[in-house]
Sequence to fold (174 residues):
Amino acid sequence: MITLKGENIYLRALEPEDLEFIHIIENDESIWEISNTITPYSKYLIKQYLEQAHKDIFEVKQLRLVISSYKEESLGMIDLFDFDFKNGRAGVGILVKEIGDRGKGYGYEALKLLIDYSFTHLGLHQLYCNISEDNETSIKLFTNQGFKKIGLKKDWIHTNGSYKNEYLFQLINN
Fold:
């Protein structure tokens, strides 16, 4: 049995009822830098996305899950993207929406569940993530789960009129 349940949270598939939640996240300019977004998303486009969300990761090369509390509160989202079955790898992205919910272990638990699922059920060999050099919270989260910093992409992110460096982190399933 596939379990995406942790002690305090569980990961679940997207539902049509997530429209408002996703719309708020996708249009939050404070996180556009980490999501590489430059324009707002309409509810219409997000609704179309949700209608296709049931498709298999092998077809769409992405899996987006909601991080949910056992009180049925949507806390954030975690993604596998650039899913590459041939080479056994995928990128990981994670966001805990509310600042007050950060630092409580939800991201740590969600990432652990996704890592276990990726290696055990999807048969992936490695996961990677891209983190701007000033995002100390994400660096700590991923390194605490065993990700290693393997590279620096200089002047990789253009934000607020200047460029920032971005680290590449990798976790290999041995």
